[in-house]
Amino acid sequence: MKKSILLTVFCIFLTAAGAEEKRIGLCLSGGGAKGAYEAGVWIAMEQMHLTDNITAVSGTSVGALNAALFTNVSPYSVKKLWKTQIGFDSVLTPDFDKYADVLSFTMDYSRTLLSLYNEYKENALSDDSPFLKSLEQAGTDLASSVANYLKDYFTSGKGAKGIFSRSKLTAIIEENIDFNSLKDKKAKIYVTCLRKSNLARKIMNISFTGYTDYSETFILNEQTSAENVTKLLLASSAMPGIFDTVHLDSSVIKNGSSLSEDGEYIDGGFENAGGQNIPVKPLLKDENVDTVIVVYLRSDSSLGDSKISRSGTKLNGKKLIEIVPSQPLGDLVHGTLNFNEDQIDSLIRLGYTDARKALKEHTDLLY
């Protein structure tokens, strides 16, 4: 009897010791509404008793939002949040004042072009008529104005405006992410952003070739105010031209100290401009992570050794587990911007199913 009790205690001890050794880093990609897939993955990980072993979460754009939500809200509350609050209207809230500026800019030229076209049509003028030359000049002026607008947007040190408001998304963040609770979490929460000036470097320098990592990583748990947590989450998803850039100053903490230089920040997922839409790098460098689970939002995605090596980072003996959608999640219109409730529910279910299938093969994590 005593031997049986001792054996049971010993087995429990080994199980507990094994559980402590499981140090998981979770990488969450960016992808708009497709982020609901990640919610399904989180629910599966909770049911498989893996979430308590997560020591770090890294996210870009919607992946950053999910990283903060997952570590603050129960999996089923996250599911409800995705189905009832995170929608097209909350993410893409029109800012009609900004719309007015854009419409005024385009309508003036449209009226000019239409007027000249009608003159040409009514008078059946020859190809070398002054009206056709005026029409051609108006088109050239429009193209030049658009080019100058874009150049100013990307190269100006000032904050750049988008045409959609962030007010509703800000409210969701502030209502669901408790700052004090966030600071007490054992899991580090990495958020990836991109400084606007680095995007300009790519766009304005046509001789730029190859890949250079310009992304910047911040840890939400290190921040000293709820305001800066909100700013970082908004910055990580600030798509240029769609949303306002986010100004970060020295009150923001980076690498344990104040941000050395103020700047305007945008969505960290622009890989062609040096961003990291699959922000695995912080997890591969984190000494408190042994296994990295990467969640993709494209069915044809795979991190692969090439992408890891080009970021200047190696696996360093860490185990890599990839959760890839078993079917396409949709394009820009039918996927990224599709916040239809049925679509969201379908994505959550698919993420749940794919995660269980991928993770059940790794018995070293489960037992």
UniProtKB/TrEMBL annotation:
<feature type="short sequence motif" description="GXSXG">
    <location>
        <begin position="59"/>
        <end position="63"/>
    </location>
</feature>
<dbReference type="GO" id="GO:0016787">
    <property type="term" value="F:hydrolase activity"/>
</dbReference>
<dbReference type="InterPro" id="IPR002641">
    <property type="entry name" value="PNPLA_dom"/>
</dbReference>
<feature type="short sequence motif" description="DGA/G">
    <location>
        <begin position="267"/>
        <end position="269"/>
    </location>
</feature>
<protein>
    <submittedName>
        <fullName>NTE family protein</fullName>
    </submittedName>
</protein>
<feature type="active site" description="Proton acceptor">
    <location>
        <position position="267"/>
    </location>
</feature>
<dbReference type="InterPro" id="IPR050301">
    <property type="entry name" value="NTE"/>
</dbReference>
<keyword id="KW-0442">Lipid degradation</keyword>
<dbReference type="Pfam" id="PF01734">
    <property type="entry name" value="Patatin"/>
</dbReference>
<feature type="domain" description="PNPLA">
    <location>
        <begin position="26"/>
        <end position="284"/>
    </location>
</feature>
<keyword id="KW-0378">Hydrolase</keyword>
<dbReference type="GO" id="GO:0016042">
    <property type="term" value="P:lipid catabolic process"/>
</dbReference>
<dbReference type="InterPro" id="IPR016035">
    <property type="entry name" value="Acyl_Trfase/lysoPLipase"/>
</dbReference>
<feature type="short sequence motif" description="GXGXXG">
    <location>
        <begin position="30"/>
        <end position="35"/>
    </location>
</feature>
<feature type="active site" description="Nucleophile">
    <location>
        <position position="61"/>
    </location>
</feature>
<keyword id="KW-0443">Lipid metabolism</keyword>
